[in-house]
Structure formats: structure tokens, C-alpha cells
Design goal:
single chain; four-stranded antiparallel β-sheet; alpha+beta
Length: 240
């Protein structure tokens, strides 16, 4: 166990914890958007910025990625931290002013509208969908393409692979801005993504006739589990 100070409160957490996890343990709220406890943090949204004081020096960093170290002081509401967090939130709000989640969090931070105008985009590049597809679903059907020197793209983007995607909808579930959505109608599932719409045929239960899961997803589950595809002829309710 290690001890650190967060907002003048001594907090004790397990070694290997992050500053965000330590703050959560102490019931000290730090806002987040791109963070999820089941995924590897990457700090892309910058909303969880805090000020760290260590060895007489101070710096700003994302709480979700910074390791909780013995003896450090964390200031979640210092002037520097609030200024950086407000700017990050304003950027997101300017980019996605119609997102209920972004708007609600912005209001909690005292931001009614951004002080500038940006090109609006449903996707805020938080990469939650990328990490979910890689770490939870293990399909790697979603890729983050970053712009940079000697790269052929003008803007960073999230790209879905039609060939790899199994239609599970995990990306739509985790997306904080509804840049990815999923809708089941009849025998089909449509997932709308920044890369375009993808359509999947749903499996029909032989007992009740309900269309209950994408055939491609069922084939994937049968393959990795080593089970027969015939075992998925019935929906969950009819297997009981």
C-alpha cells in the first residue's frame, strides 16, 4: 500500500493504482469522458487533468494515466488544473454541442457554451470503441488513425473494418457521444459509424422466432469457444 495526498486528504491505495483510482477510493470526484474501469486508460480527452506536486515541482497530467506514487500531492481543483480542464471541455463542447453527455458534463463544470467555434464532428476521438474492440471483444475491427508528419491523412479518424466487425454493438454501447449507434429492425442490425453504415443479418431462434444476435457474431463465438454452430439455434430465453 502507498500513501499520497489528494486535495489535502491522505489517501492509501494499492501499489499500481492510478491517481484517478486513488481519488475514486477517497470519494473525490474527477470528471472523465474517455475513461472506463474495464479498459486501459489513454487520457485522450484531457478532462481528468490534475496538478501533481512532487519533489518541489508541479506539472499538469491526466489522472487516469498517472501512477499513484508515495508522497506526491495531487490538486484536483487548483487554478492550473481547472483552467486546463475547462479548455479541454470547451474543445469537446465546440466539437460536439449536441451530445447530451458532453453538454451535461460541461454544465457541471460551469460551461454553458464554448468561447470559440470548431468544425463539428460526432466522433471526439476518445478511442473507447477502439480499446473495447481490442481488449474486450478481441476482434480489432476498429482502428485509430492519427495524423502526423509523412502520413497521408489530413485529420485523425476512427475507422471500422467491415471485414472484421462481427456486429456485436459493443462500440455503440461504449460511445459517449452517439457517434456510433446501433438499431435492430426485423432480421437486420444496422450499426452507424464514422466510417459509414454496416448491416448484419440476425439469427432467428428456431423455437420462438425472435431475431436475437448477428449471425457473424454467433459464428465468431462458436469458433473461439470450440462449440457447434447448432448450439446457437435457440435464443437465450428459449435455452432456459
Amino acid at each position: 500500500m502507498i500513501k499520497l495526498t489528494i486535495d489535502d486528504q491522505v489517501v492509501e491505495v494499492k501499489d499500481g493504482s492510478t491517481v484517478l483510482e486513488a481519488a475514486n477510493e477517497a470519494k473525490i470526484r474527477i470528471p472523465t469522458i474517455c475513461y472506463h474501469e474495464a479498459l486501459t486508460p489513454n487520457g485522450s480527452c484531457r478532462v481528468c487533468v490534475v496538478e501533481i506536486v512532487a519533489n518541489g515541482k508541479s506539472n499538469l497530467t491526466t489522472a487516469c494515466t498517472y501512477p499513484a506514487e508515495a508522497g506526491i500531492e495531487v490538486r484536483t481543483n487548483s487554478e492550473a488544473a481547472i483552467t486546463a480542464r475547462t479548455l479541454a471541455m470547451e474543445l469537446l463542447l465546440a466539437q460536439q454541442p449536441h451530445s447530451a453527455g458532453i453538454t451535461a458534463l460541461a454544465k457541471q463544470l460551469g460551461i454553458e457554451k464554448p468561447g470559440f467555434i470548431l468544425k463539428q464532428d460526432e466522433c471526439i476521438l476518445c478511442q473507447l470503441c477502439v480499446r473495447t474492440c481490442h481488449e474486450i471483444v478481441c476482434v480489432d475491427a476498429i482502428t485509430f488513425h492519427a495524423k502526423g508528419k509523412d502520413r497521408e491523412i489530413d485529420e485523425a479518424s476512427i475507422v471500422h473494418s467491415r471485414e472484421k466487425c462481427i456486429g456485436c454493438g459493443s462500440c455503440a454501447f461504449i460511445c459517449p457521444t452517439e457517434a456510433i449507434t446501433m438499431n435492430d429492425a426485423g432480421d437486420s442490425r444496422v450499426i452507424k459509424t464514422p466510417s459509414g453504415d454496416m448491416k448484419f443479418k440476425l439469427k432467428k431462434c428456431k423455437i420462438c422466432g425472435t431475431y436475437w444476435a448477428p449471425e457473424k457474431q454467433i459464428e465468431y463465438i462458436a469458433k473461439i469457444s470450440g462449440t457447434s454452430i447448432k448450439e446457437y439455434d435457440r435464443c437465450f430465453d428459449c435455452r432456459i
